[in-house]
Amino acid sequence: MKAIIQRVTQASVTVGGEQISSIGRGICVLLGISLEDTHKELEHMVRKILNLRVFEDESGKHWSKSVMDKQYEVLCVSQFTLQCILKGNKPDYHMAMPAEQAESFYNNFLEQLKKAYKPELIKDGKFGAYMQVNIQNDGPVTIELESPAATMDLKQ
């Protein structure tokens, strides 16, 4: 599993010209699910995303508070293209989990985020839809996360 996390001042998702989701200050998570991902990777990523310290504390100390510490919002967008492997200049997505499986896996991911945090602060796009994602990156701060299994695969 791969995630790109961006600290944002605001972010939104539009489908077919209609805004379906938006957040204020918080993080935007672009999530790519691989064929090999299991519940173990899902739990790891939920924990890491919610506890990632990308915000400053009350005294201005950087990198000391998480989205949960600050009670900020989270916008999640499923993005299979994060599982891309380039073959020359052509993207290959055979490592991405097929849409039929990935949709329930992604919904489970959202449910786990909501259980671990505050459900009303977790927003998402529309799985499988052609979306426009507007991200107002704050900093800019962009962090790439990979589940332990993905990191192990790369080392082999």
From TrEMBL:
Look up the record and report any one GO term of the cellular component aspect. Answer: cytoplasm
Catalytic activity of the protein: a D-aminoacyl-tRNA + H2O = a tRNA + a D-alpha-amino acid + H(+); glycyl-tRNA(Ala) + H2O = tRNA(Ala) + glycine + H(+)
Q: Name one GO molecular function term.
A: D-tyrosyl-tRNA(Tyr) deacylase activity
Hydrolase as a keyword of this entry, yes or no, is yes
Any matching Pfam family: Tyr_Deacylase
Is Cytoplasm found in the keyword set?
A: yes
Q: Which CDD domains match?
A: Dtyr_deacylase
Compartments where located: Cytoplasm
Q: Which UniProt keywords apply?
A: Cytoplasm, Hydrolase, RNA-binding, tRNA-binding
EC numbers on record: 3.1.1.96
Q: Record's family?
A: Belongs to the DTD family.
Name of the featured protein: D-aminoacyl-tRNA deacylase
**Species of provenance:** Mauremys mutica (yellowpond turtle)
